[in-house]
């Protein structure tokens, strides 16, 4: 029986999906629960209420419910029964105990008292609790860490479930407890407090889930009652019992009433909580709602499995949080997994199928896995819903790197393509073996999918993806080998190669149990059952393939691509079975085939696989070791004899044809491959190979195909000799002989570095770098001091040649890589891997001390240019080098920049150097170097300062000719150095400014023309983004302007002691200073041209940031000009901008005098709008100032400016030294005549230390300033217009108590 009118009561009524997701997001704000929501606080009429007044009048006791649920030790049913008993004794007190339990569960320490419950509404109670919350941290019981809270959520949910279960026959229909509880939870779920909202939503949803179970029980009871009533009524008149019919009718009426009450509660919870909280800002709350609605649909599908409810899950599939999407998919899995419910999901599936298919590519792997598993259920239970296009979008996922996702996609592939044809039915709990025809069909389908899809080149990943669902078919090695050995097979060459790869991959998967390279599993190990299964499979595999492997090798011995994986099969065998199974004859056959394959092929992959297979068999532990060793000796004897004969022909003859060269090269390749895995020292191959290489160096007549394997042979010979010597106490003669061989070989490789053939050069470099690393000082570590005579240090010439080779063969620009599918792209990728190998070998020589660390500059200077190709290698080298020697590494970084700069200077000259693209790349490299120092400024302080000083020395190391006005040729290097300035602390920046000035004093320069690189570098040393006036370049004293006019006498107050206070000390006593920079809102006449620069000014007008900054060009002596603005009345509304300025050393305060005509113009402008009421000024009147700095001083701020007032007065503010701190600099500025009412002030203030001027008149500003206040950069002037007015434009300014025409300063 369906719920009454629940669907009609939904907030989002309707059964279609026409409304889009965007419209659902833009819905109106959630309304309060409707009037039908139960909100009663008092019991219904007729309900039993037992009061105990003595307890009701007292304060509620401590909440034992919360402590018991938190402990999670007692039986939850007993706990609820105890509460029910207390509730029956005192209804109000019992209900308050339940309410306070939920409040405590939210983490709130407040309680609901009887008086509050009696006199206050729910909203007032919640407001009161919110005020008392006082959360010390963001944690509350549901999210609190620690073992005591770990099980709280489970116990809390179990308590709610048990409460409804125990009350379903009594208090559930009382009206008082449940209705009030639902009303309280609804109010709490709408709270702004996260803890209230989260906990109450969880309680409400669990309450709703329990009510759904009760409603389901009532529905079943109603169905039974209806059947009983129909059966009784259909009886004959003599058998019918009227009393039973009447009792059944009364029972049905009672069940209907209960059903209606339950529906009312569920509707109240759904509309009051779920509809609003399923889109809550907190993902945990959204996840709770989606999880519970999925439970409702599964348990009570008759009422809840409708489109009106399903749409919430469909909309939430687009949620941005992983956990919510995961809950959606799990809820849908529960629905699609039931074939009986799928018919009611057709409309939902058609609407949201595309979204479910697209979630296969979700960025979160666990979400993508659940999406694939959901589609598997749709594939199984809803035929024809997923189109071929949908399936084709899932197939490529079988090659994903994440094994869980790939395995899920493999299962989908199995059910879509393989299961209909290759179903494995089970009978009696035991799997019935498939027919050979079914297995053949399976492998044919597998081949067809792999070959025709062309999604990947390696079948091992496909085998691994299908292993969990189709492992039984893949382990059918009988069918696989029969297909391969069948004579009349219709398999092509590609299909044969793929089938062999599937055979080898399945054997490896069964015997080793780990996925292919690059696929992540996340599992730590195998269970005991899995290990047993793996051992059984390995035995079964070995027993089956040992007799067949020689046959397979004989059939495919001519094909290198097929024989290579077959030789690798031996690593999956249990080789003891050769003995225990008496299969020695098959071993003989295998050794014969192995020898034929080695003699027949010269490909490196085949030879490597064959040498490894023979190495596995030549284990002294095996009883058949003698047979394997004899076969190895036969094979090496054969190869050695061939080599001796062919070598004699080469040494005696001056010309060899192509066949002879090929045969010699092939023999050397075979010997080299086996020398890598086997000790061939007793065959004495060193001398003939050295003889061959010496002829190649002397005459150049030896083909490069022969030289390459000969170099490798000599290299392996030296290593095997070192192995023998390391195992025993070697004589001095043996050590000397080995060293001589090693030195001779290094000389040969050094000669090969200049060979015309690139392959020979690269091979010689790789072998040489490895050999130098082996014979480095590291070889005596670990108690092997007797090997000290073998330690070898390369000479300077060899080091230079290695570095030159690196430049010529590694750091070279190649064309852009294409799509990666063409043969040319594959070759380019292979070449890139080879170059990375060369670079890695060189870097290892640097880090292990074989080469001088300064040679690392040849690598570091290409860090930025080749970042995509070698960035990881160079970064790791840089990190390791810094760990070895931090100071030396910093010098190497500087050396790299010096080398690049010098090369650029030689190519292009000093003119316009910093505008070249190569110079911009160098700046990017310097920035990347600076980032490598990390955020630890104090730890790297000495390194960065050293780097700056060395860089300054280099920039001024070469001076221009005497009398020339050109800048030094290396001066542009300062721009590169500026990239390291953010890594400096403030004190070091001041020191470097002083150091730079001292260095600049030795350089002559054109007067009034400071150099751009110096300005840029000084700007970078500013503690904040600064103007170009921070340049410490000293202007000639003859060019300085004197102050004349009204402020001239004030200028003379600047004494030498005050100048000393502005000088840079070893530890600068002052932080960044503040001064004003101006920008007119309207065009002003006579302003100097300004240059914009980002983020260097602050806008103090209504707290709005400015879009850009303005920086005056430093063009030598500065001239002040009073701007004229005919629109005088608009001047009072213009805003003043403040920018951060830093002063420099050895400068004097200079002001250019104003002309009398300009002053008159200014007076006229000031008098034209003297009345504030006429102008309609704001509470703050500020003036835009034309800021000009002529001779700033380092260590303090000394800024001069002009005002719009008729009278200009220069004031000087000083402060006494603070205890433990340095002296404060003077504060300079102009202010207008305070006698004129309403005149705006244009005072320029620059605090050095933090101080606070609150209630000071202008006349009070001659004494010491207050101290010990927080440092504030923002400086401006405030004027009191009227006594009780508040400043609305600048709310951060507090009221001040000055009367009349007094003036106040605020910081």
TrEMBL record:
Residues 1-63, 511-533, 1025-1079, 1143-1176 are annotated as: Disordered. InterPro entries: ARM-type_fold (IPR016024), Cohesin_Scc3/SA (IPR039662), HEAT_SCC3-SA (IPR056396), SCD (IPR020839), STAG (IPR013721). Keywords: Cell cycle, Cell division, Chromosome, Chromosome partition, Meiosis, Nucleus, Phosphoprotein. Residues 24-34, 41-55 have a biased composition (Basic residues). GO terms for cellular component: chromatin; chromosome, centromeric region; cohesin complex; nucleus. Belongs to the SCC3 family. This is Cohesin subunit SA.
């Amino acid at each position: 029986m369906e719920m009454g009118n629940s669907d009609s009561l939904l907030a989002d009524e309707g059964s279609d999906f026409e409304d889009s997701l965007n419209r659902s997001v833009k819905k109106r704000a959630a309304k309060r629960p409707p009037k039908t929501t139960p909100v009663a606080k008092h019991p219904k009429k007729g309900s039993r209420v037992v009061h105990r007044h003595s307890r009701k009048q007292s304060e509620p006791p401590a909440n034992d419910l919360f402590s018991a649920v938190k402990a999670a030790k007692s039986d939850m049913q007993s706990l609820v029964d105890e509460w029910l008993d207390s509730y029956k004794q005192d209804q109000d007190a019992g209900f308050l105990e339940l309410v306070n339990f939920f409040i405590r569960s939210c983490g709130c320490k407040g309680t609901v008292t009887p008086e509050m419950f009696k006199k206050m509404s729910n909203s007032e109670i919640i407001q009161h609790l919110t005020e008392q919350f006082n959360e010390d941290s963001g944690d509350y019981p549901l999210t609190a860490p620690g073992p005591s809270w770990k099980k709280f959520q489970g116990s809390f949910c179990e308590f709610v479930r048990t409460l409804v279960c125990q009350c379903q026959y009594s208090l559930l229909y009382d009206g008082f407890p449940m209705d009030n509880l639902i009303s309280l939870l609804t109010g709490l779920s709408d709270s702004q407090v996260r803890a209230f909202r989260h906990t109450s939503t969880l309680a409400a949803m669990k309450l709703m889930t329990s009510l759904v179970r009760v409603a389901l029980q009532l529905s079943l009871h109603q169905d039974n009652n209806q059947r009983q009533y129909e059966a009784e009524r259909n009886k004959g008149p003599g058998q019918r019992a009227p009393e039973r019919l009447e009792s059944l009718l009364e029972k049905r009426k009672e069940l209907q009433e209960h059903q209606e009450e339950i529906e009312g509660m569920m509707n109240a919870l759904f509309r009051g909580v779920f509809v609003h909280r399923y889109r809550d800002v907190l993902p945990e709350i959204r996840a709770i709602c989606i999880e519970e609605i999925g439970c409702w649909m599964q348990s009570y599908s008759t009422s809840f499995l409708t489109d009106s409810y399903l749409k919430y899950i469909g909309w939430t599939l687009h949620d941005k949080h992983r956990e919510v999407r995961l809950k959606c998919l799990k809820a849908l899995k529960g629905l699609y997994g039931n074939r009986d419910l799928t018919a009611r999901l057709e409309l939902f599936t058609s609407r949201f199928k595309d979204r479910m298919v697209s979630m296969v590519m979700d960025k979160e792997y666990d979400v993508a896995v659940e999406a694939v598993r959901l589609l598997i259920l749709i594939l199984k239970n809803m035929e024809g819903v997923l189109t071929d296009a949908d399936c084709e979008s899932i197939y490529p996922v079988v090659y994903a790197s994440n094994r869980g996702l790939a395995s899920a996609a493999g299962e989908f592939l199995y059910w879509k393509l393989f299961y209909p044809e290759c179903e494995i039915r089970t009978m009696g709990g035991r799997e019935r073996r498939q027919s050979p025809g079914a297995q053949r069909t399976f492998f044919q389908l597998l081949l067809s999918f792999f070959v025709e899809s062309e999604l990947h080149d390696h079948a091992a990943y496909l085998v691994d993806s299908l292993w969990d669902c189709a492992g039984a078919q893949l382990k059918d090695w009988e069918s696989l080998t029969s297909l391969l050995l069948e004579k009349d097979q219709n398999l092509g060459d590609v299909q044969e190669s793929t089938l062999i790869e599937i055979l080898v991959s399945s054997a490896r998967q069964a015997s080793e149990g780990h996925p292919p390279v690059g696929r992540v599993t996340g599992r730590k190990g195998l269970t005991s059952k899995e290990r047993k299964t793996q051992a059984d499979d390995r035995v079964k595999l070995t027993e089956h393939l040992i007799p067949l492997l020689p046959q397979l090798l004989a059939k495919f011995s001519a094909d290198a691509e097929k024989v290579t994986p077959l030789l690798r099969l031996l690593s999956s065998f249990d080789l003891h079975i050769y003995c225990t199974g008496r299969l020695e004859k098959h071993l003989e056959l295998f050794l014969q085939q192995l020898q034929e394959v080695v003699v027949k092929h010269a490909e490196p992959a085949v030879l490597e696989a064959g040498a490894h297979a023979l190495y596995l068999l030549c284990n002294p532990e095996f009883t058949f070791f003698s047979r394997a060793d004899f076969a190895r000796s036969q094979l090496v004897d054969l190869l050695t004899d061939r080599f001796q004969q062919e070598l004699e022909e080469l040494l005696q003859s001056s010309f060899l044809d192509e066949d002879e060269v090929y045969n010699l090269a092939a023999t050397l390749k075979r010997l080299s491959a086996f020398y890598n895995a086997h000790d061939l020292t007793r065959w004495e191959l060193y001398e003939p190979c050295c003889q061959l290489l010496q002829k190649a160096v002397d005459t150049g007549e030896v083909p490069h195909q022969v030289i390459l394997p000969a170099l490798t042979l000599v290299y392996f010979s030296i290593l095997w000799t070192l192995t023998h010597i390391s195992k025993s106490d070697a004589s001095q003669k043996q050590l000397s002989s080995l060293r001589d061989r090693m030195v001779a070989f290094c000389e040969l490789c050094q000669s090969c570095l200049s060979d015309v053939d690139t392959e020979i050069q690269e091979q010689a470099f790789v072998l040489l770098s490895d050999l130098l690393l082996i014979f480095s000082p590291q070889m005596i570590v670990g108690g092997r001091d007797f090997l000290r005579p073998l330690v070898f240090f390369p000479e300077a010439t060899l080091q230079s040649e290695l570095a030159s080779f690196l430049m010529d063969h590694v750091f070279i620009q190649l064309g852009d890589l294409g799509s990666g599918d063409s043969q040319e792209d594959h070759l380019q990728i292979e070449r890139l891997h080879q170059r990375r190998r060369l670079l890695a070998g060189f870097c290892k020589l640097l880090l292990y001390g074989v080469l001088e660390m300064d040679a690392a500059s040849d690598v570091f200077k290409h860090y930025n240019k080749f970042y995509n190709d070698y960035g990881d290698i160079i970064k790791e080298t840089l990190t390791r080098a810094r760990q070895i020697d931090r100071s030396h590494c910093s010098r190497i970084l500087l050396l790299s920049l010096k080398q690049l700069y010098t090369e650029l200077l030689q190519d292009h000259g000093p003119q316009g150097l910093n505008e070249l693209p190569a110079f911009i790349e160098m700046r990017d490299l310097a920035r990347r170097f600076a980032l490598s120092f990390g955020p630890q400024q104090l730890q790297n302080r000495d390194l960065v300062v050293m780097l700056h000083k060395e860089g300054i020395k280099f920039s001024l190391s070469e001076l221009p000719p005497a009398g020339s006005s050109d800048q030094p040729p290396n001066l542009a290097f300062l721009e590169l150095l500026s990239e390291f300035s953010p890594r400096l602390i403030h004190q070091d920046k001041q020191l470097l400014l002083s150091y730079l000035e001292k260095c600049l004093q030795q350089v002559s320069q054109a007067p009034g023309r400071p150099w751009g690189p110096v300005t840029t570098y000084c700007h970078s040393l500013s503690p904040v983004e600064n103007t170009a006036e921070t340049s410490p370049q000293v202007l000639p004293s003859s060019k300085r302007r004197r102050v004349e006019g009204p402020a001239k006498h004030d200028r003379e107050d600047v004494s030498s002691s005050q100048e000393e206070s502005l000088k840079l000390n070893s530890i600068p006593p002052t932080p960044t200073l503040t001064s004003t920079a101006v920008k007119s809102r309207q065009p002003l006449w006579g302003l100097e041209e300004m240059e914009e620069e980002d983020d260097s000014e602050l806008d103090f007008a209504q707290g709005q940031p400015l879009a850009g900054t303005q920086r005056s060009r430093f063009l030598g002596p500065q001239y002040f000009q009073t701007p004229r603005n005919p629109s005088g009345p608009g001047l009072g509304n213009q805003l003043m901008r403040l920018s951060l300025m830093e002063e420099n050393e050895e400068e004097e305060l200079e002001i250019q005098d104003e002309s009398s005509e300009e002053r008159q113009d200014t007076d006229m402008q000031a008098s034209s709008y003297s009345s504030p009421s006429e102008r309609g000024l704001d509470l703050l009147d500020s003036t835009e100032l034309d800021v000009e700095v002529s001779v700033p001083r380092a260590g303090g701020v000394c800024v001069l400016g002009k005002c719009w007032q008729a009278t200009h007065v220069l004031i000087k503010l000083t402060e006494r030294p603070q205890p433990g701190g340095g002296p404060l600099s003077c504060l300079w500025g102009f202010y207008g005549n305070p006698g004129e009412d309403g005149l705006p002030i244009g005072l320029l203030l620059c605090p050095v230390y933090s101080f606070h001027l609150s209630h000071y008149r202008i006349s009070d500003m001659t004494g010491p300033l207050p101290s010990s206040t927080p440092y504030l950069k923002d400086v401006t002037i405030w004027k009191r217009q009227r006594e009780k007015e508040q400043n609305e434009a600048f709310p951060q300014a507090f009221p001040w108590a000055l009367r009349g025409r007094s003036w106040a300063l605020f910081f």
